[in-house]
Amino acid sequence: MPTFLAPDGTRLAYRVLGDGDPLVCIPGGPTDSRYLGDLGGLSAHRRLIVPDLRGTGRSARPEDPSSYRCDRLVDDVEALRAHLGLPRTDLLGHSAGANIAAQYAARHPENVGKLALIGPGTRAVGMEITGETRRELARLRKDEPWFPAAFAALEAITGGAGSDWEAISPFFYGRWDAAAQKHHAAGQPDNEQAVALFAAEGAFTPEITRAALAAFEAPVLLLAGEFDLNSPPRSAAEFAGLFPDATLVVQPGAGHYPWLDDADRFTAATAAFLG
Q1: Which candidate, 117, 49, 119, 114, places its Cα nearest to that of 77?
Q2: Contact by Cβ (8 Å): 274, 114
Q3: Domain 3-126+191-274 has CATH 3.40.640.10
Q4: What is the mean pLDDT of the chain?
Q5: Closest residue by Cα to residue 92 from 120, 69, 72
Q6: Domain residue ranges in the chain
């Protein structure tokens, strides 16, 4: 597995999948990037460069824990681009990784060809997703056999009286089948400190980021799953409105991992955007 050095000397690992023009793919979590797989076969269209964020997967843990902050991770993406010798690169961010990608685009717009934000987290731009929005979206799944227990747990969490995150896992998938359950089990965070410090004080400067994205001229794709409780389509639409040139795609029947729910539909939409 190839590696490179971050600006602070931390050795970071990345995977390379497929051939063609490079696409740097930033995972969420922060967790081991292998949960992305090859993004439903997107590697047949592009050469995927998939880093393990510092302290996750095969990347080393930094000496300074404050470097787990989202804004600090932007420097690692820039170091990867320089290591690869790319004057510009297309960039994809999933979930929390979309916060890194958005901040990267804000700080280094000249280095981004196209930007794809999949099931995007919105903390970088200061968008709050209300409990009622999540519950409203969850009710679309009321006919699922697992719904009563999962919805009760969701109500407790959004009401501030619960913390059974495992119980609401089915809401993050378009189908809560054996493949989804296996994916969920394999994708759990492997560094709780990295998760806890990702959004530490100073990690986000929404007003500055929004202003920079308003001047971001490259094409942007925001793709949300119809049932994505983490990144609701309504929030993705609001996020899209921050860019001068953004395309919003809502994938029917999909949750937070649209390449797993319908690989062909996801790959077709994303590959068409990337060109």
Answers
A1: 49
A2: yes
A3: no
A4: 97
A5: 120
A6: 3-126+191-274
